[in-house]
Amino acid sequence: MEKVIDMKDENDAINPQRRAFLGVAAGVTAAVTVAPGVLLHTVDAAPRAEPVTSDVRWGLLIDTAKCVDGCSACVDACHHENGLNLQTMPAEQAVKKWETQKPAWVRKVKLQDNQTGRMTTLPLMCQHCDDPPCVDVCPTGASFKRADGIVMVDRHLCIGCRYCMMACPYKARSFIHSDVHGQLTSVPRGKGCVESCNLCVQRRDFGQESTACVDACAAEGHHAIVFGDLKDPDSTICKLLNEMPSRQLREDLVLNTGVRYSGV
Amino acid sequence: MAKSVLTVGLVALGLVWALAQTAQADDMKRYVVAGSQAAKLESCVEPTELMRRQHMEFIKHQRIATVHEGIRIEKYSLSGCVDCHISYNAEQIPQPINQADQFCGACHAFAAVNLNCFDCHAAVPNGTPLNAAAMAAHDAAGVAAQVQSSRDGKGH
Ligand code: SF4
Ligand code: SF4
Fold it and tell me: Which of A6, A86, A260, B104 has the CB geometry, 3.0–4.6 Å to A246, for a possible disulfide?
């Protein structure tokens, strides 16, 4: 890494009192257990009542050394969480076309160093750029960055021009080509809009701790993905970022991504 | 003469129409889920007259607060409409609310207004699907029907 890019916005220093207050306000999370090992659903004390603020910036740290070749637990969990598995290949479509066009918020990518032959495997999703090119190009204001750093699409405004897909350097976005049925209440999605990873925004607003991919990776025993607040010096993700070398993919683009990788 | 016959005819037609409307309105009352928030209230989140004419304005403002600011406790909520006004068939399967004989669908069909909300939004309460093992456990515990509506359902 030639350049060190500060992940914190110097203008909004953290107010520890406010943080402590928010911690209390977030309340207790109770869980109902139906049978051993089976959670009915998590009942959160408080769905979000106040607008999101830039006191937090959500991000991910991916340790590629722990990511296992051939494992797709994070991808499957994402599909399940967001209802991407509700879509099947349209009857008239060619398999190859479907494979390249079907919705994918996170993909497993393999990298090879051509000189040494070293292979690396990693999950690639929207990098939640601080300076997102997708937002720059969007003609309708549908692509936007939430105050807490999550980059997403307001599907009410998206006209499906797909300009953002062209602008994204990480191929992180996909377009819904056909009608969708049986959507989840928490993840509305339909034909004609672009979509991408939103760091499980439905979980954020209901005070849950992690994302579907993080949970799935941990359940497999790999613990390759860590989710957290990049602005909180006491968060696990910040401590890890402090300790281990990590980098942004395509750091030459100076996008200050919210997703960081180590071991690449 | 012809004119007065026409007038009487029109008035009669009007009366039949009004009666049909009353009957339909009565019919619609059944689309309030027993035990839901709606069942306990005199009217919806605003007086009925206001809801009939303005509900689209209410949810349009709410969507900005929710999508852009992450606020999930808004008084107006599309998933709230679904939770309280969904109806179930004899097998306890929820009927998509935009169907022509259901709460949203019937009125929109009558008013000839396209209903696009449910192109994207869930037309039945629908939580994250459970995997097979979890579903079996819920079945055994007799709570499979409840888990359908989770997370968003209570945030209105
Ligand atoms: S990774 Fe792509 S979709 Fe995500 S914020 Fe950056 S440019 Fe936008
Ligand atoms: S496809 Fe939608 S989100 Fe992307 S640039 Fe066009 S309007 Fe904006």
Answer: A260
**Is A48's CB within 8 Å of B72's CB?**
yes
Residue the block writes with tokens 């309280």: B84
Q: Which of A185, A204, A206 to mutate to test the interface with B (most CBs of B within 10 A)?
A: A185
Q: How far is CA B11 from CA A7, A49, B4, B6, B138, in A?
A: 73, 52, 10, 9, 57
pLDDT at B156: 31
- The mean pLDDT of chain A is 86
Instruction: Report how far residue A163's alpha carbon sits from residue A134's, in angstroms, rounded to the nearest whole number.
Output: 8
Residues B45-98: tens digit of each pLDDT: 899 899 989 999 999 988 999 999 999 988 899 988 898 888 888 898 999 999
Lowest mean pLDDT among A188-197, B36-45, B69-78: B36-45
Element (H, E) at A195: strand A194-195
Domains of chain A are 56-262 (3.30.70.20)
Nearest CA in chain B to A38: B134
Say whether B121 and A80 touch across the interface (CB within 8 A). no
Shortest Cα distance from B12 to chain A (angstroms)? 44
Task: Give the model's pLDDT for residue B75.
Answer: 87
- A129 alpha carbon to ligand 1 midpoint, in Å? 6
How far lies A122's CA from each of A72, A150, A217, B73, B153, in Å?
Answer: 10, 21, 12, 37, 35
pLDDT tens for each residue of A143-185: 999 999 999 999 999 999 999 999 999 999 999 999 999 999 9
Spatial separation of the C-alpha atoms in residues B22 and B10, rounded to whole Å: 18
Note whether B110 and B133 are within 8 A (CB). no
Ligand 1 interacting residues, C-beta cut-off 6 A: A 126-129, 132-134, 151, 168, 170, 172-173, 196
pLDDT for A78 beyond 70? yes
pTM for this one?
Answer: 0.77
Q: Which residues of A touch B136 (CB under 8 A)?
A: none
Instruction: Show Cβ contacts of residue A256 under 8 Å, excluding neighbours closer than 6 positions.
Output: A5, A7, A129, A130, A131, A248
Question: So what's the pLDDT on residue A36?
Answer: 42
Report CB contact under 8 Å: B147, A40.
yes
- A127 and A249 Cβ atoms separated by less than 8 Å: yes
Nearest CA to ligand 1 atom 4: A126
CB pairs under 8 A between A and B: 101
Count of residues in chain B: 156
